[in-house]
């Protein structure tokens, strides 16, 4: 009754404004009965919800969908409170999109009493010297702090932080960097936990100042990680303790394991890694790419022992381009002249101190000073170099020398490599050879392997610095390794042209382990080389072993991994995170990892882009497949998603519109989408149609007939019908070769 009554009134509301006749007298007024009260309450609630939705759309700029969702969370019935909050956000110079993001994070703020709840917190931070930009960041990233108690939560946390920083400016800055810290209910307990471990207040202040996210983790996690560091031998009174704590808390387990595995591949044992981590915890904070690049440069190119880096782990944290490479070349030059015999302590110091030390060691080395002044961007070096007329002369000659070398490299790339003037000019800035001796030897080595001129240019384009590599000690051992495995000249050319960076990788730590891993599945050098020719990047993928182990851990048998390496090696180029997310998704769909179709499904999920996937699903829907039907077909034959949209459309069009099949028949036989329409489907379909038209076979969908070999198809659908055999064969051949 209530539902009918309510519908009637809504109808009248809609009808009355457009009708000249009043119909309201026909209906009795709502009585003060419980039913009437219930209706008025529901109507009032509906009006308020409608008001809030309209406010969020018209005033805040939300989409109708988002506004509808948020309107059920907020409780304001008038625009006063939300208007005041919006004015506050706009006064902080926030854009409309940032304001919407802020409201999404804490929609209940729109319902708060601005004067009593929000203003006191804003005024508090202003009294502490917070600027508009700092307030904007705090409010934007942690708007819920405005709902917390000023006296019981915000002020106690602020005072605790200030007791560590001894300055409002530093305290506000730390809160700006991590706004959540001001509303952390366990902040005092976490600080006390660190103090009980023996961490000094200055180090706690440094931890919060540089890495405040560490104290935003759970207190149990913080305690567990601190205990782990104490067991490893870290001393809490040293700054390395908080650096290690940052690494242990922030870095995920999978990322940590990846870096440990990477260091192992560079020859570090677990004990070596622990020692390096204790000396310089930053070595585990750097990305895998950065670690690999620094290791590759210092070990492979400079010839250092990787264990030396374990004793100086800070090298793995410094900038490769701005510090490690320039200083390494300077040191290499001085060692070649006998000026220094080991890595001086000043190598890791400031540019100024290093320059002073090196100048003292080898003050007559003009080349060293030229090289260092050119590669170091620090202006104060130029100040030091300006002391004295001889240094001024040196500074002048540096530009001339650099220009001469640049011109030499451009000429070499044009005359010896066949590059255009423009291409040579661009590449010359990425090469570092100063004479033709080494570059000539590199070109001679590659031409000896039957590299064509175009392949040489492609290789140099991808890795211009290959011309400055040592052909005997760096390049030749890798080339000889591949030749020892039976690689032909064409295979070597393909591998090097596509992935010239493989020649920079360590033979012992990178190339051989990757090769042996692939061969352990393919069981022959011939198949392994074919796979590497198809996908040369596999030989330098430092996470290849992790990807294989991930597949095995999910239950994928070795035979399926072998299929991936042999037929679809490009799949192994995808990131390990993509592997894991798609493996999880496939298991949820019900695919069993032990079946061959699982790897087919994984290939489909990795290769097909999300936009293309959605278009194909929609295409199947248009042909009458439900989501359940599509899922069933995909699980049966995942390859139905690897075909192009035009191929799917053409197959559907032929079978459904021309042959008269139900589209659901194709969902039972999704392998049909992989067959050639011209070479198999149309010729065989013509034979079947001919036989059905003569009532020689039943009129039904002979889907399995399309999967038979040519010999079996002939025996089953041509040979039994001797009278029609000649005509059938003629029809079959006409459809198979329509051009004849």
TrEMBL record:
Keywords on record: Transcription, Transcription regulation, Transcription termination, Transit peptide
Pfam families: mTERF
GO BP annotation list: DNA-templated transcription termination
Coiled-coil regions listed: none
Keyword Transcription: yes
UniProt GO MF annotations: nucleic acid binding
Cleavable signal peptide: none
Family: Belongs to the mTERF family.
Protein name: Transcription termination factor family protein
Protein's organism: Senna tora
